[in-house]
Design a protein that fits this description.
The complex is a heterodimer of chains A (274) and B (216).
Chain A lengths: L9 H17 L10 H9 L10 E7 L5 H17 L3 E6 L4 H11 L1 H5 L7 E6 L3 H10 L1 H4 L26 E6 L3 H13 L3 E5 L4 H9 L3 E6 H12 L4 H34 L1
Parallel strand pairs in A: 1-2, 1-4, 2-3, 4-5, 5-6
Chain B lengths: L2 H24 L6 H34 L5 H25 L6 H33 L5 H17 L1 H6 L1 H14 L1 H23 L4 H5 L4
Helix pairs in contact in B: 2-3, 3-4, 5-7
Classes of the chains: A alpha/beta (274), B mainly alpha (216).
Chain lengths: 274, 216
């Protein structure tokens, strides 16, 4: 049986992608990145006049280790930006590996966290379970969901949390997600009480998040690694997402080429058949 | 307790919880002592269910190993992983007094779980690449239109698209910000209406699966 453009072995594609992804790592290309309006809105919502020193913001790590490449660069920029504005951060997450993500953030935004003090400028509440009910409960009584922080210190003994217990005490929510948690905050915090919120989601969440941003539910939205790269450009500190953009370009271009090849092959086969 | 009585209890609990939550959310958002109490219960039940789930999982996979069912070796790996994490977590806790951030447990998590987790997602890129080739074929007009739209969106999401032709970004953005939005909003609205309808049916006892595990 001869070679057919419509039936190339899948292993060929794996090897092509593997080799092609090596190129930008060995020799960065650096395509220009245009900043999307939804990302700019997110950045403007957490900087400048939008944030007062002492404002309390929740950052929800709704992603695990597997989505670090997509979500974490955006979260890093947001944490840096908020700390530089003098905001206080409540960090928490519904993934079992939330502690790894927290420690990764301490590393990726090291200078800003080193300049801040645990318990005064940020607090890590840790793992949350209970789905939408827990998020609703968090709005009305944080201490019933988290009597202590992740390190077993009672919230009453943490200076930053002295006057923080309900949605009234929180200026905004940033939910970084691979799934539904942004939606829970949307229903239980933004729609119910009007707490400003934004999402830093994986690329797939763009289709559900963009309508919410356009409707005004989210004041901004970062979509996937691309959103992370745009945020890194906005804060002026290139990081992992900008580095990854070349690989994204190569892989996306290869996918389109694969689709074209498959369809050219299909047309040729049809031509032969007729 | 008879099946009938069991069902009545579930009816009553569901009805009371629904009414309390409904009133709190829509009419008395600042006065929520009852709702708060119920939500606290819900969080506790959720946490108990996690433990219960782990026990059930261990039991089901133990049976797989015991009876040498198909792919029983994977069940064995799962059980070994469960035991190792449980034992290292407990040992670390008793030795250091720390919860999840004790050294032994952390070592397992950082050196085993993190690389596996970080590898899992990128691997899908390879599958998507080969799947795009095998599945995205314009066998009719509908499929062709979807393919063209998809290619525009893919290229607009990557900086290389704009570098090739600025029109990729313009058209791709139109799809993202205009083309797909009405569809997603319709989907969200219909889904929500469906949930409301489901809620009413459950309250009226017309959703049999909700009450009695699918049986009358």
């Amino acid at each position: 049986m001869g070679f057919s453009l419509a039936n190339i072995d899948r292993r060929v594609f794996y090897w092509i992608l593997f080799i092609a992804l090596m190129v930008p790592f060995l020799n960065p290309i650096g395509f220009p990145i245009k900043i999307a309006e939804n990302t700019r809105d997110l950045y403007e919502g957490i900087t400048g006049d939008s944030v007062e020193p002492g404002d309390v913001w929740i950052i929800n790590f709704g992603y695990g280790v597997s989505a670090w490449s997509e979500c974490h660069p955006g979260v890093t920029v947001c944490a840096k930006a908020l700390l530089r504005e003098g905001a206080h951060l409540i960090l928490m997450g519904p993934h079992t590996d939330v502690e790894l993500t927290y420690r990764h953030l301490l590393d990726t935004a090291k200078e800003d966290f080193d300049a801040a003090t645990y318990g005064e400028d940020w607090v890590f509440l840790g793992y949350i379970t209970g789905g939408e009910s827990a998020i609703a409960q968090l709005a009305s009584n944080m201490r019933s969901v988290y009597p202590t922080d992740h390190f077993a210190t009672p919230l009453d003994d943490i200076s930053m949390m002295q006057d923080v217990n309900t949605w009234h005490d929180v200026s905004g929510v940033l939910s970084s997600d691979t799934g539904d948690w942004g939606g829970y905050f949307l229903t239980m915090w933004q729609e119910a009480y009007g707490v400003p919120m934004a999402q830093i989601g994986i690329a797939m969440l763009g289709s559900t998040g963009i309508p919410r941003w356009l409707a005004g539910n989210y004041f901004g939205m970062s979509v996937g690694s691309r959103g992370g790269a745009e945020l890194e450009m906005l804060i002026g500190e290139p990081g992992d997402a900008i580095i990854a953009m070349d690989s994204i370009s190569v892989s996306h271009l290869l996918i389109v080429i694969a689709v074209i090849l498959a369809n050219v092959g299909l047309l040729l086969e049809r031509g032969r058949g007729s | 307790m008879s099946q009938m009585l069991k069902r009545e209890v579930v009816y009553a609990i569901t009805g009371i919880v629904t009414v309390v939550m409904f009133l709190e959310y829509f009419f008395f958002p600042e006065s929520q002592s009852w709702a708060e109490m119920i939500r606290t219960w819900s969080v506790i039940i959720y946490n108990i269910s996690l433990g219960l789930g782990a026990v059930r999982l261990a039991m089901a996979h133990s049976m797989n190993v015991q009876r040498r069912r198909e792919n029983w070796a994977f069940s064995g790996v799962l059980l070994a992983g469960l035991a190792i994490m449980l034992l290292t977590g407990l040992a670390g806790y008793f030795m250091t007094g720390q919860q999840t951030n004790n050294a032994i447990y952390n070592w397992m998590f950082v050196n085993v779980y993190t690389p596996l987790g970080a590898t899992l997602y990128p691997i899908t890129g390879f599958y998507i690449f080969s799947a795009a080739y095998r599945a995205f074929r314009a066998r009719n007009i509908d499929a062709a239109l979807m393919l063209i739209a998809g290619c525009f969106v893919i290229l607009s999401n990557a900086p290389v698209g704009e570098a090739i032709w600025i029109g990729f970004a313009t058209v791709g953005e139109w799809f993202r910000f205009t083309g797909q939005v009405p569809g997603m909003r319709t989907f969200a609205l219909v889904g929500t209406l469906g949930m409301i309808a489901y809620g009413f049916r459950a309250l009226l006892g017309k959703e049999r699966g909700f009450y009695a595990g699918g049986e009358e």
